[in-house]
Each structure stands twice: as C-alpha cells, then as structure tokens.
Design a protein that fits this description.
The chain is mainly alpha-helical. It has 13 helices and eight strands.
Length: 385
C-alpha cells in the first residue's frame, strides 16, 4: 500500500475510511447529518475545508500522509461542525463568524477535542503538535524538575533509585492537588500509542491499568486505521493534562522495557521458558510493580502499633481527589459518549512464573530520565511525523 500511496486504490481506501468516520461520529453522538461527499485535496494553507454549496468536505493529502489518523479524524470533525451549523442553523451559518460561540457549541456536540476546535485549521496558524507548543511556567517547571530527579535515579544503588522515583511521584501528586481545581476541558490533551499489531498482549493491557490507577490519566484501547497500510491496528489513547500524559507515556514504555529485560534474565537462568510461562512472568512483574506503587499511597504513623491504622500520603490524597474529580470524566463523555466495556478473555496463568515475575517486579524503579526518544512510541494526537 505504501508504494502506491498516490494510486486510485490508496485514495479510495482513505476516502471510504473517512466516510466510515463521518457515519460513526453521527451515530455515537446521535446526530442526523445529511450524507456528504468527502474528497482529498492538495492545499498550501488548509488541513480541511467544508463547502456548503457543493456539499463536500475536503481533507488535505498532506495531513493524511504525514500525521496520525487521530489528527485526520480531528480535522474531519472540525469540518463536520461547520456542516452541523449549515444544516441546523443555516441563517447563522451565513451571518455568523465561522468560529464563533455557535461553532464551539457545535464542536462540543460532535465531540471535537479542543485542539481541533480552535479558530482555523490551516498550516500557518494551527500547530497540530501539542508537544511543541509553548508551555506555561508551571508545566515547564514540573517537567524540568521531574527530568532532573529521574536522572538521579540512574544510580545502581537501589535505595537511591527508589527514593528518586518516590520524589517524582510526590512532585506530581502535589502538582495535581494544587491545580486540579483549576482544570477545564481546555487543559486536556490526547496521545495515541500504537505498536503496529492487530491485538494487544495481556501484559500491555496490564500496563495500561497501572497507568490509570497510579498516574493521573485516563486510557482507552481502540483500533486505529493506518493510512500507510490501509489496515487497523490496536492502539492506546492516553488522555489527561499535558504533564500527566507526558509522565504516563514515559512510564508505559519504561515498564514494557523493564518487563522484557527481567524476562531475558529469567530465561537465561531457567534455560528458556515456554510461551505461557513468559506471559505469566510478565504479568507477575507488573503485578509486583503495582503492589509497590500501592504501598506509597499509605503509611503507618510511627507512634501507632496498629498496622491497620494507616493514613494517606500526599500521593494517596492526590489519587483519591483525581478519581473523584468530574472534569476529565465530563470531557470523556463529550468526546466518547458511548464507551463500551469488553469482556476479558480467559487466560491461563502459570503460578511459578507469575510468582517469579511478581518478585522481580518489586525491584523496578522509575530510574531513567524522560526523553523524546523512548523506542516505539507511536504517534500522538498532538502531532508526530
């Protein structure tokens, strides 16, 4: 498919997928928009365009070629918001500013992320990559401090590495406690990670559950269309504030790398493990790490002999407040109003391998600095070529 990117077959596949996205958006948001022609076009200034006279939505070939499918869908929904106004409020569509309060309301109705509801989707004024946008002073400060602390964690001394990890988590916890009340939907960003596979492995899903429980973000698993191959691949979408999503992305790749490192060590000792044992070991590693993180949410007062007399740490208080905060849940309801819940398939666990992995997982520390080069991190909604 990549060799024939300019061919009729490639363009037909992309347009069919765009039409499916148009129908899907109308269905999940329960909006009845009239059928419309969707085409690809070459433009030196626009990512997308809605023409009410010809009833067409045009999507830039440059956008499809150089950005993730999430970007493409974001621009498509932006243009659908124009279509919504033209059909529901034709007089306002003619007389109103095309990016007025009416347009913002249409974007909310169609679940357009704020990144794509801004005034104008054009190459000059709209930066699709939120990672390259100027950061506010508070965000810049916390990210820089976290990088410095994690860099200290590269020490081979386990106590120092663990201390660095806890200090970073406390830093993020305090930041979330201070800023949670000032959140709005405009503070949230999306980041999509894909490994180019049809389905997720059980340990990848377990890693996602650790992120959602301990790192102040929401995560969704989905199938994402890939314009290069014309196929759908499993993907993970992280949603939250910029600094929390950045940290969660780092933790996701770090944990998967550590799992494979510990598995190689175990395989060398055990002269190789069968597939079921390798899976169980990976899950055990992640479970051990999960238990270790949970310990940092509570502590026992030094003057209390009762182990059940526990109080929350700053990390525990921040996580409790995050889980009760309505803003991110409301935002998700706007973007994905009909989220479904899949049943988990049964999985046979090898007890010995799981226990060995569990013990190894307790030794994991977040002891590497956050960098922009962390392996196969996929493409995110904020950009990424």
């Amino acid at each position: 498919m990549k060799e024939s990117r300019n061919s009729f077959d490639w363009e037909r596949t992309v347009i069919l997928e765009l039409n499916r996205e148009h129908e899907y958006t109308c269905r999940i948001h329960r909006i009845n928009l009239r059928p419309i022609s969707i085409l690809l076009f070459d433009s030196a200034s626009l990512w997308g365009q809605f023409d009410n006279r010809t009833r067409t939505i045009s999507i830039s070939r440059k956008l499809v070629n150089e950005y993730s499918w999430h970007h493409v869908v974001g621009v498509l929904r932006h243009e659908m918001a124009h279509q919504y106004i033209a059909e529901k409020s034709p007089l306002e569509f003619i007389s109103e500013n095309p990016h007025s309060a009416l347009f913002k309301e249409a974007c909310k109705r169609l679940g357009v992320p704020d990144q794509f509801a801004k005034a104008g989707i054009n190459l000059q004024s709209c930066n699709l990559d939120w990672k390259t946008e100027p950061k506010d002073e508070a965000t810049e400060k916390i990210l820089d401090k976290a990088k410095r602390l994690l860099a200290l964690g590269t020490s081979t001394n386990e106590h120092e590495a663990h201390l660095a990890m806890e200090r970073v988590r406390e830093l993020y916890a305090k930041h979330n406690l201070e800023h949670m009340e000032n959140l709005s939907q405009e503070n949230f960003v999306h980041l999509v990670i894909t490994h180019g596979k049809k389905r997720a492995e059980s340990w990848e899903l377990r890693t996602i559950s650790i992120l959602t429980e301990h790192f102040f973000i929401k995560a969704l698993t989905l199938q994402q269309f890939d314009a290069n191959s014309g196929k759908r691949f499993h993907a993970v979408e992280l949603i939250g504030t910029r600094e929390n999503v950045t940290m969660a992305e780092y933790v996701y790749h770090f944990l998967l790398q550590q799992v494979e490192f510990l598995l190689r060590q175990a395989s060398n000792r055990e002269m190789g493990l069968v597939r079921a044992e390798r899976t169980s070991f990976r899950l055990g590693v992640l479970d051990g790490f999960d238990k270790k993180l949970k310990l940092s949410t509570q502590n026992i007062p030094k003057d209390s002999p009762d182990e059940n007399n526990k109080e929350q740490t700053v990390i525990g208080r921040a996580l409790t407040k995050f889980r009760a905060d309505p803003y991110l849940e409301d935002y998700l309801s706007d973007i994905y109003p009909r989220l479904g819940h899949r049943r988990r398939s049964s999985l046979e666990i090898d007890g010995n391998a799981f226990a060995a992995g569990h013990a190894a997982g307790k030794s994991i520390n977040l002891n590497k600095p956050i960098t922009t080069n962390m392996g196969n991190q996929g493409r995110h909604l904020g950009g990424g070529k």
